[in-house]
UniProtKB/TrEMBL annotation:
Record-linked SMART domains: AAA
Gene Ontology CC: one annotated term: membrane
This protein's record includes keyword Transmembrane: yes
Organism: Triparma retinervis
GO molecular function, one term: ABC-type transporter activity
Keywords: ATP-binding, Membrane, Nucleotide-binding, Transmembrane, Transmembrane helix, Transport
Name of the protein in its database record: Uncharacterized protein
Keyword match Transmembrane: yes
Gene3D superfamilies in alphabetical order: ABC transporter type 1, transmembrane domain, P-loop containing nucleotide triphosphate hydrolases
Top-level taxon of origin: Eukaryota
Residue ranges occupied by any ABC transmembrane type-1 domain in the UniProt entry: 17-300
Amino acid sequence: MALPYFTETRQGKVAFATVIALTLLNSGVSVAFSYVGRDFYSALSSKDPEQFNEMLLKFSAALTLGVPVSVFYRFQREKLSLEWREWMTARVLDLYFSNGVYYGVERGGVVDNPDQRIAEDVKSFTAFSLTLFITAVTSVIDLASFSAILYSIKPSLFLDIFAYALFGTVSTSYIGRRLGGLNFSQLKKEADFRYALVRVRENAEGIAFYEGEGTEGDEVGSRLGRVVENTGDVIRAQRDLEFFTTAYRYLIQVLPVSAVAPLYFAGAIPLGVVTQSTSAFNHILSDLSVVVNQFESLSQFSAGIGRLKEFLDEVQRQDGERDEGGILQLASATAPASKRASRPSMDRIDLDTDPSRLSSSTSPSSILNFSNVTVSTPDLQRTLVTSLDLSVPPLSHLLIVGNSGAGKSSLLRCIAGLWTSGHGTICRPPNGDCFFLPQKPYCPLGTLREQVLYPSFTNATDAEVLDILTQVDLSSLASRVGSGDAIAGLSATLDWSNTLSLGEQQRLSFARLLANRPRLAVLDEATSALDVTSERNMYEAVGKVPGITYVSVGHRPSLVEYHGVKLRLMGEGGWKVERRSEVEENGGEWEMNP
Ligand SMILES: Nc1ncnc2c1ncn2[C@@H]1O[C@H](COP(=O)(O)OP(=O)(O)OP(=O)(O)O)[C@@H](O)[C@H]1O
């Protein structure tokens, strides 16, 4: 997970090399201060003012050089960690948004709280990986430099220190072994708690109408309870560990002094050497005791890595187009547009992985073609449509009807390529030429202009956007949100989902359809909140888009007159197709009910 940033980007390589150089310089500064400090105390103990003043000067010189090195070392580290986080988050988002992965991850339900993994786990991964790496590098450098100092003072002390650090590491790992699992649960429980609060925010009106505050409060409260319970376990495990680590750290203050004190009492070494040996001992011991000193952060780090790895594995599993390779490797489908193959005029969606059962025939006279399509629910518990064969010619609009739960929206999910459970072949124009209006209107974050142009944000003049709003009976919206100035209103940013009425949101969806001008529009109960006149206006506006064919799902009888083909789903797999021309030729009425 860590390597790609440094192998794929020049910026990463340069920043990393700078950090390593500053790390070496900073270690040099520590060693220099150790010698200056030694001579300073020696001058003090020998009551030599001349040498003392000279050491003060040397100390000032060391300070002048050392302070910038130390400051830039820390700054560069933070900067690298920030740039790395930015790169890695962008890469994870690329993977998450490519080939419908975010939809598959959400539906799959294998990993919880993907938002937390992208926002928090990536952040702690980049920050702590760097800290850990630098700690390892500085520990090795420190170890080499201060070992030489300590060995020159007292060789046996040098061996004792290794035994002490080994004892500390083994004991800490044993006493703190529960912390890894507890920290893993902590991340999940915190994210679950936050998600419950986000849901209340997003559904505030629904909850207020139901007066569901009590139930919501109980749910949020019980999630908080789980956070508190787990945190309690974490702090108890930390307490047990700290009995050991605190004693371990206090002992360091006296151990080296006690070891060299006999030499000092015998007059073999001056006081400065005692302080230097203490400092060298502390350096070496903290180098050897990385696990003891950082155990809590290490266990949090390993929990974060575990969750991130689990998430990236799931992303890779959901991404049918990803090549084998590194966990952060982009698939060819998400490569820059210039490298992608040119787009075919028709897309073939195969619902089956068994090629022998797939038909490859496409008819030029149809804009949407179903060949032997069987649709099952993703859990394979129900078959919603069995062996559907249907060809929809261009401009011959299709209405899909049927009882609630019969599988109408599911068939649209198959057309969109969101569901692949079943078998058969669906041929339809490629993604850029298809436009889907989902059953629940969606308003992205952004300005009114972005609501209209979503998702492509094509270049459109203010006049064109206002014209589209007029076509969907929303001419007054722009001036309303712009305090009388329609042009200013196009740049207004509101919480659209909670501000606009459901009918207004549905009309805004139609505006989006008109702005994107697809060849095939798929409308899932897109006028359910509109009155019959508005519904007519919407269909008339869509009908004026040159070359457009639409497929609608709906229950309302008034819909039938805008369509030429009717597909009725009977439930449990059955279906029936009727064509307006045939019904009328036989003297029948073209109406909703058979
Ligand atoms: N992810 C899923 N896993 C299992 N079953 C599902 C899933 N999504 C939908 N279903 C089931 O599939 C059936 C068809 O759902 P679908 O949304 O297609 O119905 P519909 O005909 O559009 O209904 P409505 O008119 O009420 O919108 C329903 O019984 C639904 O519960």
